[in-house]
Amino acid sequence: MKLRVLVLVTLLVFTAGFMVATSSSPEKTYVTGIFEDLKTTNYVNYLGPGATVWVAYVLGNMHPSLFSLSDVRFDFIPGIADVSNMAELAEQTKLNSEPTSACIKPYPYDAPKEITECWSATIKIKKGVLWSDGSELLADDVCFSYNAPMDLDPVAMGGNWPAIIDPEFFDHCQVVDKYTVKLYMKVMPGLARWQYGHLQVPILQSAYWVDKFDAAIAAKDPAIVFAPPATDEPSAGSFVFKRWEAGAFAESSKNPNFYFTGAITEEYANGAYKEYKPGVYEFVGYGDPTGDISLRFETGPFVDSVLYNIYGDQATGVLALIKGDIQYFFHPLGVAAGFRDQLKAAAGVSIVENESNGFFYLSWNMRRAPFNDLAFRQAVATLIDRAFVTDTIMKGVAFPAYSVVPRGNAYWFNPDVPVYGKEGLKADGRDLTRCERVAEAVRILKAAGYSWKTEPVCQDDKLVTKGEGLILPDGTPMAEVELMHPSAGYDPIRYTFGLWIERWLNEVGIPVKALPTGFNLIVTKVFDEQDFDMWILGWSLGLYPDHMEAFFSCRNTELGGFNPEGYCNPDFDKVAFEFLAELDIVKAKELAFRMQEFLARELPYVVLFNAPLFEAYRSDMVQYPYTQVLDGLQGANGLPSLVKVIK
Amino acid sequence: MRKYVTKRVLQIVLTLYIYLTLVFFILQAMPGDISDFYLSNPKIPPAAREALRHQLGLDKPLFIQYLNSVKNSFTGNLGVSFAEYPRPVWDIIMERLPRTVVLFLSATLVSFAIGFSLGKTIAWRRGAAIEYSSTVVGSIFFTAFLPMFALVMIWAFAFKLNLFPIGKFINPQIWRDFSVVAGVDCTKPRVSCANVVFGYMLWTAGALLVFSFLVYLLSRMFPNRATRKVINIGGLLAVIGAISWLLGTTTVGYLATDILWHLILPVATLTLYTFAGTMLLMRNSMLETLREDYVMAAKAKGLPEKVVRDKHAARNALLPVVTSFVLAIATSVDGGVITETLFSWPGMGWTLLNSTLGRDYPLAIGTLVFTGIFVLVAHLVADVLYAYLDPRIRY
């Protein structure tokens, strides 16, 4: 007995001693949580096969680019490019015609093809931009960052590399002098591949990466450049990667040489943008910077380091946040609905709600009847009462959506697309009632030559006679079709939509069977096999809405392409290709609006809903200059260079 | 015996081959592959997806992939992880294994110690209140829904009472202050200082166990009970002293204390969840043993109750518990998906879950093969141990 007491006392003494010894570090640390371990610490790998959103949160602040997008408004602004006003911005990003000989640079992987055009832009870079090791970022680094991946082949590198440097468009980068580079494009790019693409390539330090790339290029094996952990890589961004204890935490420390530390950013209500660092640089654009300022902040970092705690699931992350162990946790889908009330009630915790840049949709195999019939698609769209599911059934956790550009992407979002079953058909703007929807769908179908064995009858908002045996215009009865949608465990909203769509369609005699299906199986059947009738999935999108061309142009209908539904309309393609080639953002917007109208009318997708992104942070411990932004704080990697730790 | 062991080894190889085949084809039966994640970005051309499939060998016929997988498993080269490309699977397993071993070995030892002790007691005191209360409480924990039970434990002891950390196996705020541990530079790429400490913990535990056993053997050499007791107490004090010195004066010890601190809650959860199995097994085995004539004879001889219970009955009732213990030790290397996920303890279970969900076939197969071999060998060890513990058993 005495022995047991002795052991117990020893343990207690150690426990107490350990608790006393455990004290927080005096330096300012932004303590965050992530829910998946890093796949890699190698920045080149992270942009390739190691790309995950979790790695992006940690490594995303390491490298600058020539140009970038402003906070909150996403204006196109200079990064390390030496540009002080809109005239210079236009001048430096202008593509000038060159003789084709200037562009011919055969790459080992590039099948010889005739180059019929060549374009170049000359861009100056800011002087005095330093890497974290103290050396200066020069034109050599910029051109290396473009040319090395091109020599290795962005497609073979995989991941996001072909999207970052598109070998169909980009040719090479030439060093003009220490602070000037010349980018050559072999095909005239539009905004998507120029301002929103090649001008935002992350700049790597040539001295650090050159040997690794050379070895990989010589062996034609990208794995050689992906393999080194590269944790000692110098950074010209706000943070330098410091350490990774696998499965436990990762840490970045502030870059003492960060060029933009102390820079002031001002966004004006009239649309103007001003960014300056007194005595160092200034950029003014998008109007006269006078009047009300909608956003003003100073760039830090104001913290010495960022700690990324790795948790196994969101439940423990939520408890850690409430307890104050962490100040913010990253999650691409935000806080799960079940935790929101708990977080709202917690002292010191604030919840922010933001629009997310994505949408969820229903689509169909337009190679098959009756989905290849516009009238049928319009009738189905009319029958789907999105607001009923999002508001009445799901109690507002999502909101109805009607366009393939989410409303959160405000500049590109067309709010006036035609909507079947909503404002487009009613003068007073209210949603149609169930009976009105049924009547309208029946009218559309009848007008297109459909008939029924038993026609549906709906009176006083009640279905009196259920429709049965829909007969197609060619006289054949419609066979039962399958609607694949995610299971309730994977996504309750899409699951609910699947069930209700099945019910509404069956009510009017359209024989649909809803099949809760594993996400991977839906992806395989839709994209790899194209063996499906209807499916429900969703997309998370980039800022520039070139996804419309990818999802709906005829050239992407092959197996494995992004247009598995098989929608093919040369008229749409014409507008889509004009949009891709457009260099004027105002004209591009007009084209984007036309494309949205096109798609809302033709309905290759019936866009169903979108869900806001809820996030939580310790407002008693950290301060952000803003929290209202598309895709939330996580979309801005948690704002590590702007956040201030107040406790 | 030799013939039996040889036969069993051959059976193990055959079983392993069948197991490998099943694992491979079950994983392949999942729709799609890891290249599907390229479908999330419409800017990535299909050619890049094809390039990835080629790079990972996914474009080869299934049978060739199968042969490669079997060859890799039998040659000990488990290939390269798809998700953490191009990191070797072995590297990942060796990183995660010590964490799982420390957690589940601790939990297994504590759970068996409690289960054995309680099972022995409640069988001896059959019909007493302790039997009913232990059985009821044990059964409640045994039948609890583990994810919820673990969350309740975290909520109660880590969140509400603030007695323990909320998940994780180390406190980053402490560890980030140490860039060198036991001469190992933690800031170097792919160096896990936690694993260095886990390694020290396992070696130290092993050394102390050997030391304790030697002390026990030494004490057995003295017929005098008082002398034996002095030697045993001395040994125990030496062990406590050694642990105190290691934990209190060295960096590794300080960091090991942090790991032990994080270990308490998951071990307590697993112990509460599993001890009833051992307890009931021991109880039933003991009840059988208590009916034996030699127990009756021991009682009739007037031996003290403790001696009859512990030396005559419990030792003979131990056999099924030992078998169960050996298998539990072996299966502890595969960790537990739920426990590791909820306690943010990235070991083998977490690795298996993520590799399967991410369709990282080499890593999933590597993890399953590794744990499969352990379990198969453990069965052999249990059989051999059976013969050793019970001389009546002959193969």
Strand and helix layout:
The complex is a heterodimer of chains A (647) and B (395).
Chain A: H1 2-21, E1 29-34, H2 43-46, H3 53-59, E2 67-69, E3 76-78, H4 86-93, E4 96-97, E5 119-124, H5 139-152, H6 154-157, H7 161-164, E6 170-177, E7 180-185, H8 206-219, H9 223-226, E8 239-245, E9 249-254, E10 264-268, E11 273-277, E12 281-285, E13 293-298, E14 305-310, H10 314-323, E15 328-329, H11 337-345, E16 349-354, E17 358-364, H12 374-383, H13 386-393, E18 399-400, H14 434-447, E19 451-454, E20 457-459, E21 462-465, E22 468-471, E23 481-485, H15 492-507, E24 512-516, H16 519-529, E25 534-540, H17 547-552, H18 570-581, H19 585-602, E26 605-610, E27 613-618, E28 622-623, H20 632-635, E29 644-645
Parallel strand pairs in A: 1-14, 1-15, 23-24, 23-25
Antiparallel strand pairs in A: 2-3, 4-5, 5-7, 6-7, 8-9, 9-14, 10-11, 10-13, 11-12, 16-27, 17-25, 17-26, 18-26, 19-22, 20-21, 28-29
Chain B: H1 2-29, H2 46-55, H3 62-75, H4 89-124, H5 129-142, H6 146-160, H7 172-175, E1 180-181, E2 184-185, H8 193-220, H9 225-249, H10 251-290, H11 293-300, H12 305-317, H13 319-331, H14 337-342, H15 348-357, H16 361-389
Antiparallel strand pairs in B: 1-2
Fraction of residues of chain A in helices?
25-40%
Helix tally of chain A equals 20
Question: Structural class of the helix and strand makeup of chain A?
Answer: alpha+beta
Task: Report strand order across the widest sheet of chain B.
Answer: 1-2
Specify the overall morphology of chain A.
globular
Report how far the terminal alpha carbons of chain B are from each other: 6 Å
The portion of residues forming beta strands of chain A comes to 15-25%
Find the count of extended strands of chain B (DSSP E, 2+ residues).
2
| Class per helix and strand makeup of chain B | mainly alpha
Most extensive chain-chain interface: A-B, 80 and 76 residues
Integer average pLDDT of chain A: 90
Main sheet properties of chain B: 2 strands, antiparallel
Radius of gyration of chain B: 25 Å
